[in-house]
Fold this sequence. Notes:
The complex is a heterodimer of chains A (about 120) and B (about 120).
Chain A: E1 4-7, E2 10-13, E3 19-25, E4 32-38, E5 44-51, E6 57-58, E7 67-73, E8 76-81, E9 90-97, E10 105-107, E11 111-115
Chain B: E1 4-5, E2 10-14, E3 19-21, E4 24-25, E5 32-39, E6 46-52, E7 60-61, E8 64-69, E9 74-79, E10 88-96, E11 104-106, E12 110-115
Parallel strand pairs in B: 2-12
Antiparallel strand pairs in B: 1-4, 3-9, 5-6, 5-10, 7-8, 8-9, 10-11, 10-12
Amino acid sequence: GAVVSQHPSRVICKSGTSVKIECRSLDFQATTMFWYRQFPKKSLMLMATSNEGSKATYEQGVEKDKFLINHASLTLSTLTVTSAHPEDSSFYICSLPGGGAWNEQFFGPGTRLTVL
Amino acid sequence: AQKITQTQPGMFVQEKEAVTLDCTYDTSDPSYGLFWYKQPSSGEMIFLIYQGSYDQQNATEGRYSLNFQKARKSANLVISASQLGDSAMYFCAMREVAGTASKLTFGTGTRLQVTL
């Protein structure tokens, strides 16, 4: 399957600052990437679909001005949490769709964000 | 209405025994895919097994098998010969063909603990 990396793996920031999370596909070109958010002991919730060369598609209830997504190339998507607040603390995971018959998603290792 | 339901928040199983993790789903789309992912404490999402709605046979992957009962809309995961390393969160997910390609909807997960 595809190898997906995320950077940073863990970040702690002060309230009011912005944090950028990178998602890279190391061996696979992806026109689409997905960003999920997972609260402790909860399920994964899709936040947005990142589209290379065009605007991201956000799920209902997700603030697009708060969570900026840029799909700069076929191997890189970034999620920027702007003016972070403690309630933004969460586990953020990116994924990209596989090209096989199963169309499974390959997930990155995740980024744990803690906002103080 | 919830599209994916996992009614077991936690399960215990003894090493070398088999365990079944329940998953029911709800969709009106005739074409869909069902996935199981494992999430260890490290946070990464590991793809385990896939079942397509038109697949005639139950999917199997090593010690994992999927008990697919289409009429009951259930897709239970069976893990045979449990190992200590199987201790993790397990998520059932569904991909509907209609709408965003490859968009996955996750259940709330089941935490499996394998004991000696």
